């Protein structure tokens, strides 16, 4: 069962040129609390709905990596094979595990959910590292 978020404080202003704020929009106070807990907080906008997610954690990233396949072909450089189903699986895991709050309709409307899940996949990122023998 998901935890209901009580929205308190000052709502964010409506986006420029828009009279009504997005459905599910969090307050400035709530976003500040999420940032204290999770450091990075992202907003996903789907039509007139929004939801908020945090960055990938190790467990969710591990699952996402398990959905990727890496192959080496002598005739081609290394490549990552990806299909839309696997990409959706990564986004689905991300949206489910990283969800902080927002429009409940994103979770129940398949169109909205699919769009948000695909957007979460964009958060899948690594820091650049180097290794050198000493």
What is the strand and helix layout of this fold?
Elements: H1 28-38, E1 41-46, E2 49-54, H2 58-66, E3 69-73, E4 76-81, H3 84-98, E5 99-102, H4 104-108, H5 110-120
Antiparallel strand pairs: 1-2, 2-5, 3-4
Please write the string of helix (H) and strand (E) elements.
Answer: HEEHEEHEHH
Described by strand count, sense and barrel closure, the largest sheet is: 3 strands, antiparallel
Beta content: 15-25%
Number of DSSP-assigned strands: 5
Helix proportion range: 25-40%
Structural class of the helices, strands and pairings?
alpha+beta
Radius of gyration: 18 Å
* Strand line-up of the largest beta sheet: 1-2-5
Report the uncertain regions.
1-11
Mean pLDDT equals: 78
Q: Can you tell me the overall shape?
A: globular
Number of domains: 1
Span of the ends, CA to CA: 51 Å
Number of helices: 5
Description of the structure:
It is a single chain. The chain has 134 residues and is α+β, with helices and mostly antiparallel strands. The chain has one domain (28-123). It contains 5 helices and 5 strands. A hairpin with a 2-residue loop joins strand 1 (41-46) and strand 2. The protein is globular and about 55 Å long. 26% of the residues are buried.
Short description:
The chain has 134 residues and is of the alpha+beta class. It contains five helices and five strands. The strands form two sheets. Strands 1-2-5 form a three-stranded antiparallel sheet.
Short key terms for the protein model shown above:
alpha+beta, single chain, 134 residues
């Amino acid at each position: 069962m998901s935890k209901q978020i009580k929205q308190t404080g000052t709502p964010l202003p409506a986006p420029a040129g828009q009279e009504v704020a997005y459905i599910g929009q969090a307050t400035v106070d709530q976003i500040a609390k999420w940032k204290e807990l999770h450091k990075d907080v992202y907003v996903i906008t789907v039509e007139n709905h929004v939801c908020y997610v945090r960055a990938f954690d190790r467990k969710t990233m591990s699952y996402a990596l398990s959905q990727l396949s890496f192959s080496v072909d002598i005739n081609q450089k290394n490549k990552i094979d990806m299909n839309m189903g696997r990409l959706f699986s990564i986004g689905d895991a991300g949206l489910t595990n990283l969800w902080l709050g927002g429009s409940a309709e994103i979770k129940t409307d398949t169109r909205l959910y699919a769009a948000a899940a695909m957007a979460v996949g964009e958060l899948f990122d690594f820091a650049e590292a180097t290794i050198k023998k000493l």
